[in-house]
Input
Amino acid sequence: MTLKTRNFGDEQITVAKFDSGRILTAAYLATTVKTGIIQLPLHTWRIMDIGSSDYDAVAVDAGVNGSGGTIGIDGTPLITRVNAATDKASRIVFADAITSSILNDFTLPPDVDATAALTFKVLAAMSGTNDATSILTLSWVVVGPGAYAAGADQGGATSAFAAVTTLVEKSRTIAAAAINAPGNHVSVELVPTSPGSDAMHIYATWVEYTRK
Amino acid sequence: MTIKTRNITDAAITAAKIAANTITAAKLSATMATGFIDLPLTSWRVSNAANTNYGLVAATALIGSGGVGGIDGEPSLIRVNAGTDKTAKLSWIDAKLDPVFNDFVLPPDIDASAVLTFKMLVAPTGAGVSDVFTLTWWAVAAGAYAADTEQGGNTSAIAQGSGVLAVKSIVIPARALNAAGTHVSVGLFPTSPGTNVEDVYGTWVEYTRV
Output
């Protein structure tokens, strides 16, 4: 018996269909390829001015931050190598009891699927084991074309760091929402809560999303 | 019954028929075939008006160290309302025309035979003037150094007084210099804001993947 084309469903992919182009949508991609990433390098974070709860002035505030909240080795928080001589890994350090906010921003890319959740991720560790309840809290507000409307905060807290000095990847899920559409702009704020007597070390921050 | 290879129509796809390197961007959906270069608001540097260049590392008034900007920069990097709205924006207050600078490398999957589009999310306050934003675009690539021919241009007019956020675009023509690995330096400034404030809420570049 010879099977004919009509024996196959309409979804049969043929060479002709393949060559016609535009047949590969994100739905056909493996999870790793379908997952988009938005990088938030450590040095791009700005320290928020505590007094105004806003971006800082261009004048340097010694021991706190550089121009406009730029982060440096004597900032609060600070950015530093783990060991300048023997370990060139970078990290942001919230010293014990420091709860200053840091700020960043980005545009959502053309292939982001607003019907799926996004995930803010952080790679972090505590310097000691005294603070079982330390968490990071994320604010996430979005604006897009149209009459200006203040974005609702879609952020929230990570789970607790459980007083471990091992690096852990913590997440905060941003629920699917129409406002998280391509071309819309996101402003984020990150702040540690209850760091207690240990320092919090942040080694990486990024956002993962589903491609459409 | 077992269906064997010889039972499948000759038109069906097999691994052999999908030759190596044939799954190109032309096979991708429109969203995935569109590449993206984000230019976060915090990544722009405010130009030094004194020398139309990058600023000094000393925290110079109005621009900050190296032009990193801040809430009292010109333009300012500021939240819409520190108490109630954490949205960031770059804000050119009335009559300020100072450019901001940025730079990036064109990625490996860029199609230099297609146009690129610089996009910005912008909203003005006030009315009574006709304003546009101007983008400067200068590229360099491997080979003997040659100053580029300016590739930027203006947005269409920004509707003053509307208070509405709009996406404005500047198309960069297709050309060989827009190839992967080319480095682009850009500048951005309002042309004639008059007494109005121009607020920019997002900036990015879209390109066609090859």
